[in-house]
Amino acid sequence: MDDRPVMLLASDVASEREALVGIFQDSFIMREASSGQEAISVAQEGNIAIILLRYDLEDVPGFAVLEALKADPMSQDVPVVLLNLPNNTEAEAEAVKRGAADVLRPPYASALARVRVRNVRANTENEWRKLEQRAKDQQIVEMNRYIERDPLTGILNRTTFYRRAASLMQTNSTVEYVIIYLNISFFKVINDQYRVEMGDLVLKTSATYFKSVVGGDGYAARIDADRFALCVPKDAIEMDSFIAGIDGILEGLSVPHNIRFYAGIYPVENAFLPVDQMCDRAQMALNRVKSNYLQRYAYYDKSMRDTMYEEQMITRNMEYALSHRQFQVYLQPIYNLHTNHIVSAEALVRWIHPEKGLISPGKFIPIFEQNGFITHLDRFIWEEVCRLLHDFRRQYGTVIPVSVNLSRVDFYQADLMDFLLGLVHRYGLQPRDLKLEVTESAYTENPRQIMEIVRQFRHHGFLVLMDDFGSGYSSLNMLKELPVDILKIDMAFVRNIEKGKRARIILASIVQMAKRLGMDIVVEGVETKEQIDYLDSVGCEDIQGYYFSKPLPQEEYAEKLADDIASQKKEQEETCRPPQ
Ligand code: C2E
Ligand code: CA
Ligand code: CA
Prior knowledge:
- This protein folds into 3 domains: 6-134, 3-Layer(aba) Sandwich (Rossmann fold); 149-300, Reverse transcriptase/Diguanylate cyclase domain (Alpha-Beta Plaits, 2-Layer Sandwich), CATH 3.30.70; 322-558, TIM Barrel (Alpha-Beta Barrel).
- The model has no long low-confidence stretch (mean pLDDT 91).
- It has 20 helices and 20 strands.
- It is of the alpha/beta class.
- Helix 7 (187-193) runs antiparallel to helix 8, helix 8 (196-214) packs antiparallel against helix 9 and helix 13 runs parallel beside helix 14.
- The longest helix has 39 residues, at 110-148.
- The protein binds ligand C2E and calcium ion (2 copies).
- The site of one calcium ion has 4 residues, from loops.
């Protein structure tokens, strides 16, 4: 194959064409055009390396052919050498302006003509290469930008943050740095309740704020979802005003008050610790304050690491523990003040660990709620309770209902209702034998979804309790919209009874309002006779607390209940028996 480049030679002077063909035919495949029109149409076919163009063609005079060639994408980058251009600077300037690469004038000396054409081609190739390189560089810059940045907020992404923060801290070894880890509480609510755009706006605006606060002394990054991290010199940020600043921004966006940033701070001791581990530590500090209304940030200390090891132990062992029946149901009876008998009980899980002994749910439930394992554990507990109720009924012919705890995570399982209905059916129970406790904070987190499911529970005959009422931000006002059967008043309220009149007034009005709305009340955490007396005086009858009993292992509870039922029978017989 002939791999010589193609030269288009456009001239309507035959002798000129002949002379130039003679000069160039060794190194080019020659294509000739004897008019301007022909030149343009040959050029349109493409694959031309260079064009020699007579300036004063008859049919399309002057610069018009050159103009046409430069306007056509097929030929615009092909170098054009003008032939026979008038020998004056004006004409040459005009030619260059219009994109001509060079000029050749007769008589054509072969050596000079070849050199000029070679130079023109070399220059063009150089230009091409430079252009290509520039485009590539630009692409790399853009790619890097893309790879290094979080697409939504435009600030650094996680991996780039880890890398850059490490090198920043390591090169400035005399500066003390902190890693600040940030997370929004209840962020999901924004996306659920408003629109995703609102969530995006909150993230973007916050990111801009973080970046401006950090300035040139450090880095701000979006780790993922609603989590951010900053790396700054220790004294660069004053935490209180920093938090006030971001609060102001969220307020400006009309974000509800319970949706706020929380921060954990890790003061860097060793700049060579991997930055992701620094972030883990800052996050541990964050977890201490998350959802705490009063404290918005905390500093990492070493005790948190022990907590983390304990958490890891729990996560490693949970599945084995469930399949080897290390989780057991304890039951805490609920007494009626007036009859002094058991009216119900709450099922509370305990982890009986072969080496560590009894682990309380406060330690592992929050971890299971985070990693999702709670749904498995809860379903296991519910089934244990149903089995217990079933056995008890077989033995004593009666059932005293037991309430079980539902975690908000349980509500995300689409088959929740079917599972519960299936359970009560399988164990021959009525839905009302299994009461369902839903904690107050679950309602505030995802009100519409939870309320809808709760409505369905009640529709199917389950009794629903609102657990921990008064521990969060629910107001008296909220009561009337809540589809629940029983309010379980949080123990913090009971603690406060002794403290002052205000707490007593609030408690009394909650009781009144609940009663008027047809709700029952259980008070939990009752420990003293004084508390009992006060609760009695405001009309609270159903009491759960150490005053009557701690949570008991199944067998102990069953015995207690059997005794209670027996004594109840005896009392009934006594009242029925005619006086002798
Ligand atoms: P909770 O549902 O509010 O349960 C009441 C807690 O108060 C229980 O703590 C109980 O032992 C304790 N308590 C009862 N009476 C008194 C008292 O007079 N004084 C004091 N100081 N405490 C009293 P426990 O068993 O440690 O459970 C802690 C929390 O763990 C529970 O709070 C509940 O939120 C969660 N939990 C327990 N079992 C389960 C379960 O099976 N599933 C789920 N999802 N959560 C559970
Ligand atoms: Ca409960
Ligand atoms: Ca409770």
